[in-house]
Every structure is written in C-alpha cells, then in structure tokens.
Amino acid sequence: MCNDLLITIDINKEPYEKIITNDKIINITGESGSGKSTYSKKYLNDDNYIVIDTDEIIGNRPTNNKYCLEIRKLLIEKYGNNIPNICEDFNTIYNDILEYYKDTDKYLIIDSAQFRNLDVNLLKGKIIIIRTCIDECYNRVINRWKSIMKEYTLEELDAYKTRKKGMYEWYKKLNEFIIKIDSL
Fold first, then answer.
1. DSSP string, the chain
2. How confident is the model at residue 3 (pLDDT cuts 50, 70, 90)?
3. Could you count the other beta carbons within 10 Å of the beta carbon of residue 19?
4. What is the CA radius of gyration of the chain?
C-alpha cells in the first residue's frame, strides 16, 4: 500500500478525489478541523447546490442553512426521539439525505467526518477526502473552540483537549475508509 495515500500525523496532503458514480453528489470528508466546511462553504450561496453539513443536521451546531433544517426536520418526523446516532448508523442518515433530495436537479454536497463509518457500497457521486495532517487538525479544533467559548476555564479547556486527542486514533478509521475507496 502506498503511504502517500494515507492521512498522517504531521504531513499535509492534497485532497484525495474519486468519482464513484455519475450522480450529482459531492461527498466531502476528513478529520475535524481538516477544512471540510471551508471547502463546502464556497457552494452555500450558489443556487445550483444543496449543501448539507451533518454537524448542523444533528443539532451540534446552530444553523440557518435551510437544507440542513429540512433534513433535521425530516429526521425528527421520521424517528422522533430515536434519531439514528450519526457515528454508529451513518448509513441510515446518508440514505435518508439521498432519498430526500433524489429528485433535485441541483448538486448535493454532503460535508461529514462520518463517512469513515459508511458502507462504501452505498456511496454515490464523488468523494473528496481532505487530508490535512492530524497535528494541524487538532490545533485548529482547539483554537476554534477557544474562539467560540471565549470565557472558558482551564479545566474546561483541558477536558476539551483530552476529548479531541481522540482524533489521534479516529483518523486510523478514516485511513481504512480511504483504502477501501481507493480499491473500488
């Protein structure tokens, strides 16, 4: 296997892209802090695109993105209090998004760190994997958290840092996903 393919701890790489099917779907993934949202935001105000950030549909982030609000509403109506866990059942959420927008003529952009948990056989359209190194991702998420929280305590910061250090393990599953995609 070629090490140039995989995300590493300390070396940034160009995004990996692969067309899986001819569907008008662009799937964007990478570790937290890799730049997925920055990449997909360039399409937000273009009427030819529907941009879905899964962090916004599951309620982790406030949103005024009408498409994320539509999917959030769909999930609540369909599942009530039993909305599938995005990490454990991304297949279901992904399929619900595709089904909801199946008749659109627009490009569908799905931004999610959870593609690592998707059965690759369900993937439609194009996949773009942002391969920012884990050290940089970690630093970005910590700095982003500090800028949002502003009046945090050192204990809160330490707890957040400890939780986010998990990405030094999580990225390995993303690398497994990259290997599966590359072999399609």
1. --GGGS--SS---PPEEEE-SSSSEEEEEESTTSSHHHHHHTTTT-TTEEEEEHHHHTTSS----HHHHHHHHHHHHHHGGGPPPTTT-HHHHHHHHHHHTTT-SSEEEEE-GGGGGS-GGG--SEEEEE---HHHHHHHHHHHHHHHH-S--HHHHHHHHHHHTTHHHHHHHHHHHHHHHHT-
2. confident
3. 10
4. 17
Mean pLDDT over 53-81 rounds to 90
122 and 94 Cβ atoms separated by less than 8 Å: yes
| Other beta carbons within 10 Å of 114 | 21
Are the C-beta atoms of 34 and 28 separated by less than 8 Å?
Answer: no
What tokens were used for 67? 């498409």
pLDDT for 5-40, tens place per residue? 999 999 999 999 999 999 999 999 999 999 999 999
Residues facing residue 108 across a β-bridge: 25, 50
Calpha distance 163→58 (Å, rounded): 19
Provide the 10 A C-beta neighbour count for residue 168. Answer: 14
Amino acid identity, residue 73? K
Tokens 């800028």 sit on residue: 147
